[in-house]
Amino acid sequence: MMFDEMHEVVENVEANEEVATATEEVKAEEVVNAAAEVKAEDAKPTSFMEEALKSMVEIRVGKRLECTVVEIREDGVVVSCNQKKDGFISVEELGSDISTLNVGDTFKAELIENKSANKEFLFLSKKNVDEKLAAKAAKEQAEKEMLSGDFEVTISGVNKGGLVATKGDYSVFIPKSQVAIRRKDAEPLTEEQLQEYVGKTYTVRKLDDKESEQKKGRKRIVASIREVLFETRRKEAEARKKAREEKIANEKQERIDIFNANADRLQPNLIVPGKVKKFVSFGVFVDVYGFRALCPVGEVSWVRDTDPQKVFEINKEYEFLITKVNVEKYEVTLSYKTLQKKPSELAQEKYPIGTVVKGVVQSIVNFGAFVSLEPGVDGLIHKSNISYERVEDVNDVLTVGQEVEAKVIAYKQDGISLSIKDLLPNPNPQPKTERSEHSRPRPEKNVGEKKAKRNDDSYESQEEKENYEAFGGHEAASNPVFSSILGGLFGGNNDNGNENK
Q1: Quick one: pLDDT at residue 404?
Q2: What is the mean pLDDT of the chain?
């Protein structure tokens, strides 16, 4: 029993100790908790103000938020934007087709004022952000282009050195020397002249500005109107050149097509109708079956240096002879004069042998004088046909510009043989030797033998005849070589058949 009592006393003591320990722990915990509560109470007002301020910043109108699409509706989309409330973007504020959006898409949107009764969502606008971003990008691009290329400015004033203007945040300066295209030796533009540019808009180009580059952050641009003008002129010249080349190429191809289509009708020696289209210094362009052919100035008339405009009329049709066709170059050459009578042929009709004519001495050569009867019609008075007396130097008897009267005595090749002597009285008449106007100047007897033996100016070879035919006239005869040839063509004969002594 004693044992039991002792054991009970021990248990009571231990229980009292545990209670005391627990009480101490509770008190200690209460102290800690109380201190924590005091600390929390002290900190609570500061935390509330921060949360309030934070909330005010987050919900102000215009705040840009990162949004993620969580739901797509017919009238708009619901987005999560890391706020206590989700956001809502109506179709009108999307700025893009709602069908292009998917759940999970992210983009930026701007908080806008909620004028509806629905307070469940924050009302946002994606359109506002897109427009602002686009405007910013455009401004940056414009500034980039401005700093690296051409841009427009309106001149606002004049200073001592040139013109001034503004472009966005930049001041623009245009030196006098860069205002206009002027000669190097020209005087600088005056202030009065510069004032004429004020208020007008010009395209300018940025120039290097070392002063602005050294002062980083300085928003100044040195520009030039002149450089842009030069570039514009160069581009216009290149455009004109390109257009001209294209036109030439098109015309050439058109010529080829027309030539090939009319190849059987554009053959040498064919007479074709042609409409005169254009006069040029070297001839006349003629439309033949739609193909542009050329009649050289030398093929217009038998009369040298004839002005084609005195022969043809624009858009009037004439007949031409095709003289040459260049298949490789697609060129057709025409002749008009070939189809016309030669001046000598007309002269034979107008001035038959025996006709007395008047003319003007055009040139004097060693064997005689050329006399112009009319434009394109020249006659030769051989020195043996000037007088009954022997003439050593024609210049002693005749002068250039002198009007003379002569008689047509013969036609040789394309030349007319004239005689002054035949109109003069013969100091030694010999009736036996008189010949008719149509008789030959020399007898036919032993002509070949006589020519073979002759070694003077009257010798006339076939080559000489061809040369005279090609180069006949007083101009060609001024050449010493042709002089000797033509002297033979119109060798001295008189009506009496006597040679001059």
Answers
A1: 93
A2: 78
State which fold the 64-133 domain adopts: OB fold (Dihydrolipoamide Acetyltransferase, E2P) (2.40.50)
Q: What CA–CA distances, in Å, run from 72 to 66, 88, 105?
A: 17, 10, 11
Q: Tell the CATH topology of 262-339.
A: OB fold (Dihydrolipoamide Acetyltransferase, E2P) (2.40.50)
User: Looking at domain 149-231, which CATH architecture does it have?
Assistant: Beta Barrel (2.40)
Helices within 199-322 (DSSP H only) = 210-214, 226-261
407 alpha carbon, distance to own chain's centre? 63
Q: pLDDT tens digits, residue range 181-211? A: 888 778 888 989 999 999 999 999 988 766 5
Q: How many helices (H) and strands (E) does the chain have?
A: 10, 20
d(CA 363, CA 381): 11
* Residue 14 in this model has a pLDDT that exceeds 60: no
In total, the chain counts a number of residues equal to: 501
pLDDT at 486: 47
Residue intervals of the chain classified under CATH 2.40.50.140 are 64-133, 149-231, 262-339, 352-440+456-489
Instruction: Write out pLDDT tens, residues 414-460.
Output: 688 999 999 988 888 766 555 554 445 555 444 444 444 444 444 34
> Beta partners for 422?
none
Please write down the long-range contacts of 280-286, taking CB distance under 8 Å and 24 or more positions apart.
283/308, 284/308, 284/312, 286/318, 286/320, 286/334
Identify whether the C-beta of residue 387 lies closer than 8 Å to the C-beta of residue 352.
Answer: no
Backbone angles phi, psi at 201, to 5 degrees: -100, 135
- 3-state DSSP assignment of residue 479: coil
Its pTM stands at 0.44
Q: What band does 140 get if pLDDT is binned at 50, 70 and 90? A: confident
Tokens of 159: 């200073």
pLDDT of residue 462 exceeding 50, the answer is: no
Mark residue 367 as left, alpha or beta (left: phi above 0; alpha: psi -120 to 50; beta: remaining): alpha
The C-alpha atoms of residue 73 and residue 282 are separated, in whole angstroms, by 83
DSSP at 435? -
Does residue 323 have a pLDDT over 70?
Answer: yes
The domain made up of 352-440+456-489 is a member of CATH 3.30.830.10: no
